[in-house]
Structures are given as C-alpha cells and as structure tokens.
Amino acid sequence: MTKKELQETTVYLKSKGFDNPEVGIVLGTGLGKLVDEIKDPIVAHYNQIPFFPLATVEFHSGKLIFGEIEGKKVVVMQGRFHLYEGYDFIDITYPIRAMHELGIKKLLISNAAGSINLDFKKGDLMLIEDHINLQGGSPLAFKDVGAFGHRFVDMSEPYDVEMRKTIIDAATDENISLQKGVYASVIGPELETKAEYRYLKLIGADAVGMSTVPEVIVANHLSLPVAAISVITDEGDPDNLQPIDIQEIIKVAGEAEPKMITLFKKLIKQL
Ligand code: HPA
C-alpha cells in the first residue's frame, strides 16, 4: 500500500460519483440489507476498484455503494475482507483507508459474533465497548506506517464515546434491547473449541468474531471516530456446545438485521 495507490483508488471512485461521503459503513456477514435503504445508489464492485483486494467468499457480494441514508451522504461496504480468506492485515483494512481518503468523518461497523457471555442470546445486539486482538498481528505493523500517521496509536478508548451514547439512546427510544461488551477477534475460519470458549471467557471477552478489530485499529490510526455493533448469531457455551453451522449464523444475522438497521439509521440521522 502506498499513498499514490490510495489516491488512485479515490480518483476512480470520485469519477464514478462518490462525492464527499460523510459516513462510512461496513456491513458484516448476513447484514447486507441496509443497502436497500440507500437513496440514489452508485455501485462499484470491489473487483473494479483500482488496488482493492478481490472478494472471494461467495456470500459476500463485494460492493462499495455510495448514496444517501437519512439525508446524509454515505459509503457502504457490502461485504468485507477477512484474514481467513488469505488476505493480510494491510489488504483487509485498505477499504477503511480508502473511505477515509474519500472524506468520511465517522465509521460504523457491524459483524456477526458468537457469545461468550451467556447472558447474551442468539439474535441479541451487542454494542462493542472494547476489544481484544487475538489475530496475532496488527494493520499498523509495516515499515512505512510513519507516512500514514503515528506508529504507537493510543487505544485507551478505541470506540467513540459520543457515538456509543447516541446508539444507547437510540436503542432506548426504539425499545431495542442492547447488550454491551468486549469483542475478541480471532483469525478463523474454524469456530472455537470448548477450551477456547473457556479461555475467551477467562480473559474477559463477551463475544468472539473474525473481523472488525483491524478496521477499528486503522480508524484509530486515522483519528476517525468509530462505533461497532455485533449481532450475536450463536452461543459459545463450553458446557453445552452445539455444532455451529454457517448457514444458521447467516440466518440468525438476517433475522436480527432489522434492529441493527433501525439503530444505524437513527445514528446516521443524528451524526
Ligand atoms: N466464533 C467466531 N466467529 C464467529 C462466531 C463464533 O462463534 N459466530 C459468528 N462469527
């Protein structure tokens, strides 16, 4: 990744009409329907965008969409890149840097996650308050990081306090029950063993998933305020562990999706 490549990416997107988006949004597994809410959408497929990694996993449709939600100009990633697809940390966070280069001022992230905190049930939403990076690397661990910002990025409050408060208030207004907790990121793609679920509980995680943390680290690198919500799609109860089926995860995410859309729309309106 170079500054020049990022600029070429944004020159291409601007030429397609991606004109000064204010908010960037990343949609997780099974959570693509927010795109139906976008007014006057302009679509760029990932494989058409210069220097974007190519989308692989079939249930991610792999599009960057520009348009309006609640009167705000947004750019939405429908489908994201994962380490488990063989990409590296630089690849998977490239779109975050590209959206920042386009001018976004806020970033909203969603994902599907398994619960470690067993008070959280399938279909619940969890506002991420903090995270634990278990992916064995960092998107800031590269030689030229100094050209993009500080190397030793502060992570004392990685999730924007004001955006979190707005989301909590929106959930109260809309009568949506909202859990809050710590998200642990793993590489995957295999799910966790019973022993791993026990370990995750011990170290203080409330939910586990395979994304988000690298994106949040890069947002912090860019001083870009970020908020993230997990949809709990399965329960990691080590004493009663059920085999997990990815189709089931997608189904549960889809069922919980309307709540997430309501919260995101309300947040976007108030940003
Ligand atoms: N573990 C890891 N990633 C996940 C899970 C899980 O249980 N559910 C959805 N993504």
3D architecture notes:
Pfam families: PNP_UDP_1. Homotrimer. Pathway: Purine metabolism; purine nucleoside salvage. With 271 residues, the protein is α/β, with parallel strands linked by helices. Helices cover 31% and strands 24% of the residues. Strands 5-8-7-6-9 form a five-stranded mixed barrel. It is globular. The mean pLDDT is 94. Bound molecules: hypoxanthine. Hypoxanthine (HPA) is lined by residues 112-114, 186, 188, 191-192, 208-210, 233-234, 236, 244, 249.
What is the structure about, briefly put?
It contains 6 helices and 9 strands, in the order αββββαββαβαβαβα. It has helices at residues 3-16, 89-102, 161-173, 194-202, 213-221, 246-270, and strands at 23-27, 39-45, 63-69, 72-78, 106-115, 125-133, 178-185, 207-209, 226-235. The two termini are 30 Å apart.
Shape: globular
Report, as a whole number of angstroms, the end-to-end distance: 30 Å
Widest sheet: strand order? 5-8-7-6-9
Q: How helical, in percent, are the residues?
A: 25-40%
How many helices in DSSP terms?
6
Beta-strand residue fraction: 15-25%
Q: What number is the mean pLDDT?
A: 94
What topology does this entry show?
Elements: H1 3-16, E1 23-27, E2 39-45, E3 63-69, E4 72-78, H2 89-102, E5 106-115, E6 125-133, H3 161-173, E7 178-185, H4 194-202, E8 207-209, H5 213-221, E9 226-235, H6 246-270
Parallel strand pairs: 1-4, 1-5, 5-9, 6-7, 7-8
Antiparallel strand pairs: 2-3, 3-4, 5-8, 6-9
Helix pairs in contact: 1-2, 2-5, 3-6
The protein binds hypoxanthine.
Pfam family, one: PNP_UDP_1
Pathway: Purine metabolism; purine nucleoside salvage
Organism: Joostella atrarenae
